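Private note to self, pasted from the team thread so I don't lose it. C-alpha cells:
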C-alpha cells in the first residue's frame, strides 16, 4: 500500500513537471503569445467570419461537404469550427489551448505506460521517442489534424490499458476515443487494428483468458472495427485514394513505387529511433551470448513488434509517394517508440549497466533533434512576428481602393498567397493582385499548386490592374530585381516600409 501511494505521488510530480515543461518550452520559444501565420491560420479567419452570420452546424456542414470531395476527416473540422467559435481570432488563446492539448496528450501516454509497469524513466523515454523531433510542430502550429488526433489517441492508449477496474466503462471509452481519433485523419484510420489487437492480446495475457473469453469481454470492439471498415470503404470507393497529389495511392496500385517510397522513409525519417532499436538488440545479444535466451527476449517482444508494425507499415504505404516529414511522422513515431522502450525495459530489468549505457547513447543521439526542435519553434514564432509587422504595414498604408500587388512563386507560396488574400479581404476589404516569378516546374505537385494559384488570381494579375500600383508585397525580397526586370516598373518609385533585415518586403509608392 505504501509503495502504491509513493508511486502515485511520484507520478503526480512527473505529470506536473511535464505540464510545466511544455508551457515553459512554448513560452521561451515565443509560441504562447503567437500571432497570425500564413500557414494554416487563414482558415480560422474564414470560420470566424462565417460564424458571424451562420450557426456552427451550418459552417461545419458546408466545410464537410467541400472537404469530402477529396479527404475524410470529419471530426477535425467539427472540432476546428467549435474552437473558432470559442477562441475567435485570438491566436494567443489558440496557442494556449494547444499547450493544454499537448500536456494532456503527454500525460495520457505517460500514465498508460506506467500502467503497463514501465518505470518513470522508461515512460519519459517513450514520450521523448514519440514526440521529440520535427513532429513537435503540431503543438505550435494551429492547423494540423494531428494535434487533436494525437490527443484522442493518447486517451485511446490510456483506456486501452486501464482495464483492471470498471472494464466495461473503460472499454466504452476506448471505443469512443478510437472512433473520434479515426475521424480526425486518414492516417489514424489505418492504425485502428494496432490498438484493437493490443487491447485483446494484452488482456488475454494479463488475465490469463482464453481467446473466446477475451473476445466475449471485448465484444464492443466490433463497433470501432466497423467504423474503420466503413471509413476505408468510403475513402476507397467514394472519395478516392488519389485525390491528393502528394499522398495516397494511385489507381494502378503499382508495388514498385510503394516499396521504393517506403524504403526512403525508413532510411531518412526514423534514423535515430531505428538506430536505437538495432543497437539495443545487438548489445543485448552480445551481452547474453546465448541464442536461447535471446530468442526468449524476441518472443517477449512479439506484441510490441506487431503493434509497431500495424502502425508504421500502413503509414509507410500512405506516404510512400510524398515521404514523411514533420507532422506526418505521427502516428508512426508512437509505434516505433513503444517497440524501442519495450526493448529497453527488458534490458533494464536484467542488465541495468547496459541500460545506463544505452541511456547515455540515447541522450547523445537525441541532442541534435532536440536542438532542431528548439530552432524550428523559435523560427516559427519569429515568422509570426514578421508576418504581423508586414500585415500592419500593408493595412496602415492602404484602403479598399488601393492597388496592392503580391510578388511570389505560385508553387512555393501557394498557401501563403491565399492566406494573405484572405486576411486582406476579410480584415480590410482589400482585393489583392498577383505577379508570378520563377513560374516553371518539373514536379507534378508544384505544377498542381501553381495551377491552383493562377486559378485563384484569375482576373487579378499584374496586367489587370487599372491605375497605379500603390503597394508591392514580397514574401521573398531576393526576387525584387527579377520582378522589376520583368514588370518594367522603376524600383526608385517605391520605398520599403519594413526593416532591411526582414525577409518580407512591403514597398509603398513614393
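Design output:
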Amino acid at each position: 500500500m505504501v509503495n502504491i501511494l509513493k508511486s502515485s505521488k511520484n507520478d503526480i510530480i512527473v505529470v506536473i513537471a511535464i505540464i510545466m515543461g511544455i508551457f515553459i518550452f512554448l513560452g521561451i520559444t515565443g509560441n504562447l503569445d503567437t500571432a497570425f501565420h500564413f500557414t494554416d491560420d487563414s482558415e480560422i479567419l474564414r470560420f470566424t467570419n462565417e460564424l458571424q452570420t451562420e450557426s456552427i452546424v451550418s459552417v461545419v456542414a458546408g466545410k464537410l461537404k467541400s472537404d469530402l470531395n477529396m479527404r475524410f476527416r470529419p471530426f477535425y473540422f467539427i472540432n476546428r469550427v467549435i474552437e473558432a467559435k470559442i477562441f475567435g481570432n485570438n491566436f494567443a488563446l489558440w496557442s494556449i489551448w494547444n499547450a493544454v492539448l499537448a500536456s494532456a496528450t503527454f500525460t495520457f501516454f505517460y500514465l498508460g505506460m506506467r500502467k503497463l509497469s514501465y518505470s518513470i524513466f522508461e515512460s519519459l523515454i517513450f514520450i521523448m521517442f514519440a514526440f521529440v523531433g520535427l513532429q513537435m510542430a503540431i503543438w505550435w502550429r494551429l492547423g494540423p489534424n494531428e494535434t487533436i488526433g494525437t490527443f484522442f489517441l493518447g486517451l485511446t492508449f490510456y483506456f486501452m490499458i486501464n482495464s483492471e477496474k470498471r472494464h466495461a466503462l473503460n472499454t466504452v471509452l476506448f471505443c469512443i476515443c478510437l472512433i473520434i481519433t479515426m475521424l480526425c485523419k486518414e492516417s489514424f484510420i489505418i492504425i485502428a487494428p494496432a490498438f484493437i489487437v493490443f487491447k485483446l492480446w494484452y488482456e488475454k495475457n494479463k488475465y490469463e483468458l482464453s481467446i473466446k473469453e477475451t473476445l466475449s469481454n471485448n465484444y464492443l470492439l466490433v463497433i470501432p472495427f466497423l467504423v474503420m471498415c466503413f471509413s476505408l470503404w468510403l475513402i476507397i470507393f467514394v472519395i478516392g485514394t488519389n485525390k491528393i497529389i502528394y499522398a495516397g495511392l494511385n489507381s494502378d496500385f503499382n508495388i514498385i513505387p510503394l516499396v521504393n517510397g517506403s524504403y526512403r522513409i525508413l532510411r531518412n525519417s526514423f534514423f535515430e529511433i531505428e538506430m536505437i532499436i538495432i543497437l539495443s538488440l545487438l548489445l543485448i545479444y552480445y551481452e547474453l551470448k546465448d541464442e536461447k535466451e535471446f530468442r526468449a527476449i524476441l518472443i517477449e517482444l512479439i506484441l510490441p513488434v506487431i503493434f509497431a508494425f500495424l502502425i508504421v507499415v500502413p503509414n509507410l504505404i500512405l506516404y510512400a509517394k510524398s515521404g514523411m516529414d514533420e507532422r506526418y511522422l505521427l502516428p508512426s513515431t508512437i509505434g516505433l517508440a513503444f517497440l524501442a522502450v519495450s526493448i529497453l525495459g527488458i534490458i533494464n530489468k536484467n542488465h541495468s549497466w547496459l541500460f545506463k549505457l544505452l541511456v547515455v547513447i540515447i541522450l547523445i543521439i537525441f541532442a541534435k533533434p532536440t536542438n532542431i526542435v528548439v530552432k524550428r519553434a523559435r523560427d516559427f514564432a519569429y515568422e509570426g512576428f514578421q508576418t504581423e509587422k508586414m500585415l500592419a504595414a500593408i493595412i496602415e498604408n492602404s484602403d479598399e481602393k488601393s492597388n496592392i500587388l503580391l510578388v511570389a512563386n505560385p508553387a512555393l507560396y501557394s498557401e501563403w498567397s491565399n492566406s494573405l488574400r484572405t486576411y486582406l479581404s476579410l480584415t480590410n476589404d482589400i482585393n489583392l493582385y498577383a505577379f508570378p516569378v520563377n513560374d516553371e516546374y518539373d514536379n507534378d505537385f508544384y505544377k498542381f499548386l501553381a495551377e491552383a494559384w493562377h486559378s485563384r488570381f484569375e482576373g487579378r494579375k499584374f496586367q489587370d490592374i487599372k491605375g497605379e500600383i500603390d503597394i508591392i508585397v514580397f514574401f521573398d525580397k531576393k526576387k525584387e530585381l527579377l520582378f522589376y526586370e520583368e514588370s518594367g516598373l522603376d524600383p526608385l518609385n517605391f520605398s520599403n516600409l519594413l526593416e532591411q533585415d526582414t525577409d518580407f518586403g512591403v514597398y509603398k509608392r513614393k
